[in-house]
Design brief:
alpha+beta, 12 helices
Length: 482
């Protein structure tokens, strides 16, 4: 018996086309251990190939012709198909690496096989190599991917090498030994949960409908209320990938000084970069850009995707960086409150319905009839705080890669590692040909925000924050958050 896919997993399968592969991944850059020869990467591959794969790595989709697809064990599983070794032309630069990974991430994976790949890439300058791993988003979400990859790393440089596909916990599918009374009690609880689910989803749909119509005061945006931007266009299959990094400790200090969360500071930095980029292209909308922000609702020992989405006003119509930060904070605070008011199942169900609606609109080319649901996806995934090693090779940096869909040609995903915040920017090559420029503006926006916070007197920061929160309670979706 296979493992059933959740509704959100099925939605990710439905979203995929040849020009929009639904892949997520991670790019880790490692330092060769001292004294090891250049052949170390080949030795790593040989050692990894000796380790047996467990689920979800040895599972593929069932046919699903009559019934919905399930994850089943692949009877013809071939590890060598999934683990690949390549080399950059000498002297290998980060630009060469990002170009290669852009192409690898653009490819749709074969659904007749388990939906993952691991690429070992040697030839980087300064005795470095990289490992790029990608999964289909139907198989796992970003947090789950980080947890699996972290399981193969160690804080001990001398620890033995462990493949990410080895020793993964298996999901228990044994039959229940509960008594009849316990089963009836469980059925009663299930019916109550179903009733609450319907009520919660209905509440979310009504709330978003009222916000979209401008009838409900809110700083949290409703669906299909974003302005049109250069990012909201049909996409091709080609990708560009760019990166940026900032110090985590300083991001935390900025948040503490401004009375904002780390996530809001990161959103404000992205918003500043997007504002400057669109201004440079003379394409900044008068109305603020909106971001779709994935939120993890992970439960222990649950496979597949466990996320929902909240909308955030990026306040790109606000020139002053500190005002922009507090406007974003007011928006995310209200959006999170709305999610907390419903059950996790309802939040995920709403995400499924939203993704399904986007898929239908894209499939029938109806996206021009409505405003975009959001302008950009911005995701923040927490990572490990201590240095990690893989077979003695130290992990230097870990960049995330994510998904694009028609109408949303830009995705910014952020992962923390040690004292670094690493940004992975994924874009359609045609829609955002100068993605490197936008990545460079991440650092510029960080500097702008840092200066603005340093220049503002403490009382002014508190007063501005209180004023913004009051506006969040009393303003309507079309009003500015400044």
């Amino acid at each position: 018996m296979g493992t059933r896919l959740s509704a959100l997993d099925l939605a990710f399968l439905a979203l995929e086309t040849q020009k929009s592969p639904v892949n997520i991944g991670g790019l880790g850059v490692f330092q060769l251990p001292k004294g090891k020869p250049a052949s170390f990467v080949r030795e790593v591959r040989d050692a990894l190939m000796e380790q047996t794969a467990g689920p979800p790595f040895d599972q593929k989709l069932s046919g699903g012709v009559v019934s919905l697809p399930e994850w089943i064990k692949d009877p013809d599983f071939d590890l060598s198909y999934h683990v690949r070794h390549s080399a950059l032309p000498k002297p290998g630069s980060m630009e060469d690496l990002l170009e290669l990974v852009s192409r690898l991430h653009s490819r749709v994976m074969d659904r007749e096989r388990p939906l993952w790949e691991c690429h070992l890439i040697e030839g980087l300058r300064r005795r470095r190599f990289a490992i790029y791993v990608k999964f289909h988003h139907a198989a796992i979400d970003g947090v789950g991917g980080i947890q699996i990859l972290e399981s193969c790393f160690s804080e001990d440089p001398e620890a033995p090498m462990r493949a990410p596909w080895a020793g993964v916990a298996r999901h228990d599918r044994r039959g229940s030994s509960k008594s009849l009374i316990e089963r009836l009690g469980g059925l009663s609880q299930e019916l109550m949960d179903t009733a609450r689910l319907g009520a919660d989803v209905g509440r979310m749909l009504l709330g978003h409908g009222l916000k979209t119509a401008g009838l409900k005061p809110s700083q949290s945006p409703g669906l299909f209320t974003a302005p049109r931007s250069p990012f909201n266009v049909p996409i091709t299959g080609a990708r560009r990938f760019a990166t940026a990094s900032l110090p985590l400790s300083e991001i935390k200090q900025l948040g503490a000084a401004a009375g904002a969360t780390v996530n809001d500071v990161l959103l404000a930095i992205c918003a500043g970069a997007l504002r400057n980029y669109l201004k440079a292209h003379k394409a900044l909308p008068d109305k603020t850009l909106l971001a779709n922000v994935p939120v993890s609702i992970r439960q222990i020992n649950r496979p597949g995707n466990q996320i929902t989405y909240v909308g955030a006003r990026l306040c790109t119509d606000v020139a002053e960086p500190l005002k922009r930060l507090h406007g974003i904070g007011a928006s995310t605070k209200e959006a999170k409150r709305e999610v907390l008011e419903v059950s996790p199942a309802a939040a995920i169900t709403f995400a499924v319905m939203a993704q399904g609606l986007v898929a239908v609109l894209n499939r029938f080319r109806l996206t021009d009839l409505l405003p975009p649901p959001a302008n950009v996806v911005i995701s923040n995934v927490p990572g490990p705080r201590k240095p990690l090693y893989f077979g003695g090779a130290r992990l230097l940096v870990n960049y995330p890669l994510s998904v694009l869909v028609d109408g949303q040609a830009l995705n910014i995903t952020v992962i923390s590692y040690c004292d670094s915040i690493d940004f992975g920017l994924m874009a359609c090559r045609n829609a955002v040909p100068d993605l490197d420029r936008l990545a460079g503006m991440i650092t510029e926006a960080y500097t702008e925000l840092k200066r603005a916070i340093a220049a503002a007197p403490p009382r002014a920061k508190k007063k501005l924050r209180r004023k913004t929160l009051r506006q969040a309670r009393g303003s309507r979706p079309g009003n500015r958050g400044s």
